[in-house]
Amino acid sequence: MKLFPDQFVLVSILQYHEEDNKKVVDEVAPIRTVSEQDANKEFFCVDPGNVIYHTSNPDFVIHLRKDPLMRVVGH
Fold first, then answer.
1. What is the superkingdom listed in this entry's lineage (predicted)?
2. What is the pLDDT of residues 34-60, one digit of tens each?
3. Spatial separation of the C-alpha atoms in residues 50 and 14, rounded to whole Å
């Protein structure tokens, strides 16, 4: 994303396709920049369909996990 060089950005995923166990994002709508200090916290709090993305990554790919490695068990 040329408008936001080398930054974390909250984006809305508009279009994607799946290849193997990957979601390849084709089109996004930027919502706002996110500070480096807040990126991790915001990553876990985004609304469905949104994601935090760092614009230095050349490809926008989300790896899908069908079998989670960690399971949370309530007591």
1. Bacteria
2. 999 999 999 999 999 999 999 998 888
3. 9
Q: Count CB neighbours of 24 within 10 A.
A: 14
Question: Can you give the chain as a three-state secondary structure string?
Answer: CCCCCCCEEEEEEEEEEEECCEEEEEEEEEEEEECCCCHHHHHCCCCCCEEEEECCCCCCEEECCCCCCCCCCCC
φ and ψ at residue 33, rounded to 5 degrees: -80, 160
* Contact criterion met (CB below 8 Å) for 51 and 31: no
CA 7-9-63 angle, 5° bins:
105
d(CA 45, CA 31): 15
pTM for the predicted model, two decimal places: 0.77
Chain Cα centroid distance, residue 34: 12
